[in-house]
Amino acid sequence: MSGNKEILNFHLGNTKLKRDVKEGLKISKFLQKAYNAGYFSTRNKKFEKNRKFSRGKQPMAEFLDLLNVDGKEAFVNLDMKAPAIAPKFMQVIIGGFMKRDEKVKAAAIDPVSVNRKKYDRDEAEFRMNFGDEVRKIEQKTGTKLMAEGQFTPGDYDELELYFGLEYQLPEEILFEKGCDFVFYENGWPVIKRKLLEDIAETGLGATKVSVNSNGKISTRRVVPENSFYGFSQYDDFRDVSFIGEIVSMKLIDIRNSYPSLDEEKIFQLSKQAKQYNQTIKWDDRFRYSIDRPYDDWTIDVLDYEIKTIDTMMYQAKTNKFGNLTSVERKTKMPEFLGDKKEMISRDMFVIYRGVYVINTDEMLEWGVAKNMIKPSTTKEMADAFFSYSVYMHENLDLENMAIPERMETSIRQMTLAHLKIQQLIAKLRPSGLIIDIDSLSDINIGQAKALTPLELQAVYDQTGNIYYKRRTEDGDSSNGVPIQEAPNSGSVSQIQQLIMVYNHYLERLRDEIGVNEYREGSGVNPKLGLGVQQAQIQASNNATDFIYDAYLSLYQQTAFKISLLLYDSVIYGGKQYSEYLNPEKVSGKTFDVKIEVMPDEKERQFLEGMIQTALSAGMIEFEDAFKVRGIKNTKLAEMYLTKAKSNKQKQEMEKARQNSEMNAQSQQQSIQAKAQADAQLQQLEGQSKIAVVSAEMSMKQELSSQEFVQNVLMKSFETGKPLTPEIQSIVDNYFAKKEQEAQMQEQAMQEQMAQQEEAQMNEAE
Description:
The chain is α+β, with helices and mostly antiparallel strands and 765 residues long. The chain has helices at 5-12, 15-18, 21-36, 39-54, 62-66, 86-98, 111-141, 156-166, 170-185, 188-202, 251-257, 263-269, 403-427, 453-463, 490-513, 517-520, 530-571, 583-586, 601-616, 622-629, 634-719, 725-764; strands spanning 102-108, 204-211, 217-221, 227-229, 242-250, 298-318, 324-330, 341-357, 363-368, 388-392, 433-435, 443-444, 450-451, 483-485, 591-597. Strands 4, 5, 6, 7, 8 and 9 form a 6-stranded antiparallel beta sheet that branches. Strands 3-2-10 form a 3-stranded antiparallel beta sheet.
C-alpha cells in the first residue's frame, strides 16, 4: 500500500507542500477509502469471526442445512446455542501468560557512564587484590587511603556476579522507577491482558504512546479492528510508512483538544454523530454555554501518522575563534545572515500527524507531530519513531493465522457432533414390545373368563409370565413367541460413535493449538510421574510462546518510547517526573531500555528444589535461602546460590583450621600445665622435706634444752650449790616459754568450747 500514488507523491514532495493542509486532506481521504474496502475490510471480517469463535459464539445458522432442519418448521427440538469450546483453551493460554511477570531494565550506555562502570569495577578488583596491603599502609601512616563501605569481592567469580547482574548506577535505578511509574499510572496489567487477547484472537497487537496536554505520558491499547497501516515485511512493522486508527471522540474532547476550533464548526461536525438529532438547531448561545446538548455525542475521526524525510534548516552561530556556540532550527531561509552565522540543511526523518473527521472535509490537525519521539543520542537524531507500536506474528504479506483460525475446523465438527447427538437423543424411543395378538386371543387360565391381550400383557409386565395359544382356530400350530422386545440399539451405538467423533476432534484441536490435557488440567493420569507432566506442560508452553513473544515485543517497543519521552520531559523542564529524575543527573546520558522476564512457576520450583537440597546437605545457611528466594532474576539467584555454597565451604574449612589450631594450642597448654604441676610437686616435696627436717631439728633442740635444764637442776640439787646467773637465766627462759605455750593451749581450748556452746544454742533456738 505504501506504493500507492497518493502516498508516494507525498513522500516525493518538498517540505512546504507536505505541510499544506490540502495535502493532508487528500492523504486522509485516501486512507479512509483504503480502510473501508480491500484488505482492511476483509481483515476485519476475519477478526470478527475469530473473536466469535474464541468466545464460543460461533454462528450456528450454517448447521441447519447440515441437519436438514428448516428454520421455519423444525420437527426436532434442538438447542442451537453454540457450545463454548474455545473459551476454556483461550483462558488457559492467556491466564498462563498473565502469571508471568516482567520488569523494565535500564542501562546507561553513554561513554561517561560506561567509563564510570569500568572504573568502579577496576577499583573493586584493586581492593580485592591489594586491600590488605593498603590497610597495612594505612595503619603505619595513619592516613585513610580507601573509603569505607565499598563493595570488595572475595574472588573473581563474585566480582563478575556483582558487576554483571547486581551493579547499577543511581541514575539507572531512578530511570527504571520512572518508567515503572508511567506503566503503573496507565494501568498496564489491564492493558497486558487485552494485548494478549488481541494477539491470540486476531494475530495482531498494537499500543500507542503520547503526551497529554498536562505533560503526562500516556499509553493505551489500540483495537486491532480500528487500526490501519502500510505494507511491512517484518513482524514488528519496522519498515512501515504510516500507521493509524479510527477513533471515536466525544465533541467535548474535540473542543478541549482543539480550542481554536469554532463552536459553529463543532456543531456542524455533530451532524456526523450517531446520536445526531435533527430537532437540535444551531444557537449562538452554544458559543458561551457551559453544557451543550451535543457535547457527549461521538464522531469517528481518522488519527494517523506518516513517517517521511524532510529537509531541516538550522542556523549555526560561531564565536570569534570559529567555535560553534549554538544551533537554532529555522522554518525558512532568513533574509540576512551575520558574519558569524551559517545556514545548515540536513535531511531527517519526521513524523506527520493527521486527525481527520470521517466523511467531511475537516482536518482537525495536520503537520509535524508535537512531542515527536526522537532518539536521545546526537548521532541518531536524524531518525524518528511512530507513537504506535504494532506486532503481527508470522507476518507474511500482512497475513497470519491466529489461534481461532487453527481451531475453526475442529470446532465446526465438534459443534456438528454436538447437534447430531441432540438430534439422536430427541428421536430416541424407549424399548417396546412386539406382540402377536392372535396367539393371545381367547385365553382362559381358569378364572371362568377369557383374558384379553392387554390383560395378558399386564400379566407379562408384572410377572414375566406369558400365556398364549400354540394352535390357531384352524388347528395349525404356531412356534413363534407372541411377545418379544423390540430392538432399539441403533441410536445408542450412533450416539457412542458421535462421542468418539467429538473426542477425536477435541484431540485434533489440542494438537492444532498446542494445548494438551496436562496444561488444561483435564483427564490427567494420577499415576503419571511429575517429571513427565512438567515436560508435557513445558512442551505445550513452547507451542504457544509465540503469543507471549509478540507481547514482549510490544512491551519492549512501548517501554523504549516511554523512556525517550520521559528523558525529554525531564531535560526540557517538565515537572511531572522530577521526583524520579534530576535533569543534572540524566543530562547527556543515554539509556538502553530492555524488558527482563521474571522467572515463571517452573523456574521457581526448580530453584526451590536447589535451595532445599543445599539446605538439607548443609551447603548454605537459612539466611542464604531467604536471600535467594527474594531474588527474582533466576540467573542471579543461581549464581548467588553457588556463591553461598562456596562461602559455606570456605567457612567450614576456616572453622576446621581454627579447631585444629585450638587443639594444638590445647595440647601445648596441657604439656605446659603438666610441666608446671611437676615442678610444683617437686617444690612441695622439697618444702615437705625441709619442714620435716626443721620439725626434727626443733624437736631435737627442744629435747636437748629439756635435757640440759633437767641435768643442771639435778646437779644443783645433788651438790647443793646455787646456779650461776647465766645458767639461771637459761632455766627461767625455758620455764617461761613452757608456761606461755600452756596458756596458749588453754586459751585455744576455751575458744573451741565457746564455739561449740554457741553452736548448740543456735541449734536449740
